[in-house]
């Protein structure tokens, strides 16, 4: 079967899937959905104990594949337990049932004031905008190439996180081991330092806007993978990111740029960098079209990539979401395009 037939076959299957799913979800009255969601919130979410769940299935199809296989898989299966006592002492525990290590987050925090918290344990380090967006809330099925390559991900450490009295500025600073996720101890005698400033320009109803900048600095004497950068690199590592996210009515604009300075003891310098830019529009109350340009330059440490990603997100209820993605790699032929369909349930 040639590439064209493969593409049309997949598009037909996807359209049929969406039609059936939409018909089933439309049979439920909105009032009943809101009532069920409210009842679940009352039973599972209190100040001292809150339980959440995310389950996601994924269809991954390519007419011609350079790696992997076409098919289906359970891409997300995780739960989260959290709570706070006396409005001051809180905890978070998140685990996955599909990967090793299974514990994603395990941390405690203290809030001396309403606008300030001190956290310690395993959690998402305060660097990239997209990675700090929850797995169930990201715009596309997968995060961008630059975030996967250069993002600092989850780490063990401590941080201080606060807001100014007017709530328009958020500041975060942390000290971390700098080790890969899953390693609960430091690889050397050096630590990784991060700082982040985030400003909120407008938060009125459906109109929201925020901009931010983050930096991360680390010295490594032991070769270790940096995001997906090869594990042979060691030396002085600096990262900076700037980002924005703007929602005005039905329109969404979202983007991020990450640049790195990697200096090895052999006086070899590398500057991997990348960015993504996204525009979105609600074509219906429950459906949003998305378009993203995704670019990453590895600067001889790892491969480059550029792609155009078209997406459609459908929200049939407060619990469910369907994501359709078409990924066109601009540095390869159309036969290597990827079709992704994700269906998730979360609360």
From TrEMBL:
Which keywords does the record carry?
Signal
Checking SUPFAM superfamilies in the record gives: Porins (SSF56935)
Q: What is an example of a Pfam family matching this protein?
A: Porin_O_P
What is the protein's name according to its record?
Answer: Phosphate-selective porin O and P
Residues spanning the signal sequence: 1-27
Q: What is the lineage of its organism?
A: Bacteria, Pseudomonadati, Balneolota, Balneolia, Balneolales
